[in-house]
Amino acid sequence: MGVRHSISRIHASRLLACHAKNKTAPERPWRGSRTKICRLLALGVGKRTAILTGISSKRYWHLSRSKATQVGMTTDWLKAQGLVSIRDLWMKAHGDA
Fold first, then answer.
1. Distance between CA atoms of 93 and 89, rounded to whole angstroms?
2. Are 54 and 40 in contact (CB under 8 A)?
3. What is the pTM of this model?
4. Block means of pLDDT (10 residues each) for the chain, length 97 residues?
């Protein structure tokens, strides 16, 4: 049993190392509260709303439907970021556009 214990310890330390690396990964640029607040303010969201959204413990899925993200991240802003509208693609595929 000593060998299994040491192997699981090695795996655990590797997982922790990977997890630590991913905390600062560039794929999650809106992770910190201060970052969320600053970026929401830059998008034109009110100060109080930006702060309340920034310090929220809710994760990305729930915050995507909050007032701050709906006001700051408009459809035009998302298009400027290079995102494609699924609605537009659907309408184009079905000949409605």
1. 6
2. yes
3. 0.59
4. 50 51 57 89 92 88 87 89 88 81
